[in-house]
Amino acid sequence: MFNVVLRGLWARKSRAVLTMLAVVLGVAMISGTFVLMDTVMSAYSGIFNTAYEHTDAVVTAQSPFGAIGSAKQPVPASLLYRIRALPETQKAHGYIDSHAQLTSAAGTAIARSSEEASVFGLPARELDAMNPLGLVSGTWPSGPGEIIIDQATATRYHLRVGTTVGLVARKPLERFRVTGIFRFAGATALGPTQFAAVDLAVAQRIFGKQGWFDEIDIAARPGISVSRLLTVIRGIAPPGVQVKTAAQQASTATSDVGQQFAPLRYALLAFGAIALLVGSFVIFNTLSITVAQRTRQLATLRTLGASRRQVLASVLAEGTIIGAASSLAGLAAGIGAAKGLSALLGASGIQLPAASTVLTWRTAAISLTAGIAVTLAASGAPALRAMRIAPIAAIREGTAPPPRSRLRRPAVTAAATILGAGALVPAVVLGGLPVATRLLLLAGGALVLFTGVAGASRWFIGPLAAAIEKPVEHFTRAAGELAREQTRRSPARTATTAAALTVGVALIAFVAVMAQGVRASTGISIRQQVAAGYVITPQGDVLAPDVQHALAAAGIRSASVRAGTVHAFGTNQAVTGVAPADIARSYRFEWTGGPGSTALTSLDADGVLVASDFAAAHHLKTGTLITAETTAGTILRLTVRGVYAEPKLSPLLGAMTVTTSLFDRSFTTPGDKAVLVSTGTQRPAGRAAVQAALKPFPTAQVDTLDEYITAQQAPVATLLNVFYVLLALCVVISLLGIINTLALTITERTREIGVLRALGMTRTQLRRMIRIESQITALIGAATGIAAGLFLAALTARALSAWNIGFAIPWTTLAILLAGAFAAGTLAGAGPARRAARMDPLQALSYE
Fold first, then answer.
1. How far apart are CA 597 and CA 777, in angstroms?
2. What is the pLDDT of residues 368-397, one digit of tens each?
3. Distance from C-alpha of 730 to C-alpha of 778, rounded to nearest angstrom
4. Cα angle at 489 between 417 and 503, to 5 degrees?
5. 744-762 pLDDT per residue, tens
């Protein structure tokens, strides 16, 4: 039987290749994701290990509650001198590692607004092998006004020794002359991050860290074990300081990077799984058609002595071979897919470091298992159908229809799956469940819904085909009617072929509707909060407090919003700092508890305003005492002065809000997330005055309220474009299914085509008939996909109603989807149409 399977596959090479491509693309997406992420992590691991190659111990401030992404806390400089005095220490150096915006000499940002430079403060006079920077050309910075730039940044932005650049950190713009070009830990490319280095004293001044270091690196004396060195350093280290081995520090840094990339990894894997799901429809449909076409062949095998189990095994073996071969090809294609994903992310502003490609056994095992498992699952139903073929079918002209009772089974199954998906509606709409649980139910319900729609759509294929064909009936009456009747002749086949496209289109429609809702809700949310004429935001991390001081010096009233993180009630919470008198002019509070309008004026040195959700979760009300810990280790004991309702989208204030003076005392390096300017007008003159006052801070972005809303909506558009590109993979796979189905049905209809040609149908009319059939199938898939996508988007919007995400239909996008489906159907039908038109009528009439 195995030889029969191999010969059958060889005889149907084209069909096998098209089927394999559907799996190859899905597996390539999965393997490409693992290859990309493993390569990125390997690159960062190598960089960090090289950076600490000549270091034995590393001292940093210990984040009291692991606030990933929070501002790095410094350690006292006095600790460096105490470490150097230890007999176990050979060398010890203190470093500054902060972020600033790198600009041209005129103050224009030389990179994307989302990119900031990681700026090191180096003890230039003490540099040795422990220094992670390697000078390529020029000299080290040795005083004020000197800077060195990493090689990748210098190449990308055409910087060289002698160029003047600007640096905007916690102080106004300062200009530096580039004295050298360096590589960090030997790496030639470091992803999106720019690197620069200045003299240690200069870095401490511009970042406001006089008397502090971000990190102290230590090398042990010869003969002193690392464990001994760590023990003695811990003995003199003050509270809040952690001491690690260099290997542990490198591992921690790599792990932090991995956590930042985790959402991207899961998102890409989800798209790979969706691609495999779409491919399973293609496999199922292809094998179902070939089993039907091989009825007499399989029945003859039964007549010659083959058992039902052998027939079942032969179809499953065919699926396994296709799955294994396509999975291997997909695994190999994953390397190219990884490079493509990297380029796609780079075009979207997510640059990744360059490194040698990493292909692990885990990647191979997961990719092969996923591809083969999906293929076998899709092969199950056709294999069972083949097993039920009776030997008597060998002497029949065609395939006898199954008993009527069996025809009811798909109806019952489809109805059950749709009802199962519909049963999720009360759970989502009526509420009572956590948002995460609702979304998980929706994800499972979506899978059930797609399966049910694929099974049930056979009963409305006829009306849909008639409705779709009607607009073109006037121009292509005969060809259009024949195409429509062909789609209605085998509604189950048409439905399964269209189902692959349904999944892709449904997801595109779902993403488009949700994105439209998020954009609209973001604008409403911001307008409900902000009452200022202008919003000033940083092009990088945070704004220096000096920005507000510059506005005040120019006579412009403004309100700053400090931003930080605290630990309270066992969780990390966003905290903001405001000046009550200033914020009252620029922010609209909606009070839900406490004295209302007097809550803001009663905010004092130990008072706090809390968001309503945070208050409800921890049973807080006016007068309640709260204990919180800042990232600097400061313990705050606060009294609730009021409760305000915060929007879920783009909230300007955090879960807790304190006075600016308390915020500045509690955080080492306070900074603003935004400054609101109360000009009362948005006239150009007003804007010019604000920009003139902020001339020393060229990277402070001045926006009107409308411009600020657009800027807040921009990430949604960027993410949407990435999703569209990834979901286009599903559409490509579904087109392969349409091509495969049409190619197989042309073989099945060879005699019919010969009769049509004998009755006078021209080649042009025949090509048109096949193309229309493909267009009808594609439009059916698009129509059902859009309907399913809108249904899922409506449920998701209801599940996220607490986040004020509305249901907004992007009519233009949906129209483009339908037009794209029509064009895709035309493209998919072109090849099979040409093949049908090339048939010789006489040979077609004599086809058995």
1. 62
2. 998 898 888 888 878 887 787 777 665 555
3. 13
4. 40
5. 777 767 778 888 888 788 8
Among the listed residues 846, 833, 847, the one whose alpha carbon sits nearest the alpha carbon of residue 763: 833
Distance CA 786, CA 817 (A): 8
C-alpha span between 176 and 204 (Å, rounded)? 16
* Rounded Cα–Cα distance for residues 460 and 444 (Å): 25
Specify whether the CB–CB gap between 24 and 589 falls below 8 A: no
Residue 203 has pLDDT above 60, yes or no: yes
Residues 105 and 224 sit within 8 Å (Cβ to Cβ): no
Q: What is the dihedral of CA 4, 6, 9, 13, to 10 degrees?
A: -140
| Every domain of the chain and the residues it spans | 1-56+246-400, 63-239, 460-529+707-848, 541-698
The answer, yes or no, to whether residue 710 has pLDDT greater than 60, is: yes
Nearest to 97 by CA among 201, 214, 193: 214
- Residue 81, Cβ neighbours under 10 Å: how many? 11
**Three-state helix/strand/coil letters over 642-690:** EEECCCCCCCCCCCEEEEHHHHHHHCCCCCEEEEEECCCCCCHHHHHHH
Q: What percent of the chain has a predicted confidence (pLDDT) above 90?
A: 19
| 357, HSE (Cβ side, Cα atoms, 13 Å) | 16
HEC string for 45-86: HHHHHHHCCCCCEEEEECCCCCCCCCCCCCEECHHHHHHHCC
Q: What is the largest CA-CA distance in the chain?
A: 103
Backbone dihedral region of 650: left (phi > 0), alpha (psi from -120 to 50 degrees) or beta?
left
Return the DSSP state at 557: -
Instruction: State both tokens at 426.
Output: 């009360």
Say what the pLDDT of residue 222 is: 92
User: Quick one: which of 282, 373, 276, 287 has its CA closest to 323?
Assistant: 373
- What integer best gives the mean pLDDT of the chain? 80
Helix (H) or strand (E) holding 150: strand 146-150
Residue 375: closest CA among 327, 423, 445: 327
DSSP 271-319: HHHHHHHHHHHHHHHHHHHHHHHTHHHHHHHHHTT--HHHHHHHHHHHH
Residue 411 vs residue 467, higher pLDDT: 467
Rg (CA), the chain: 33
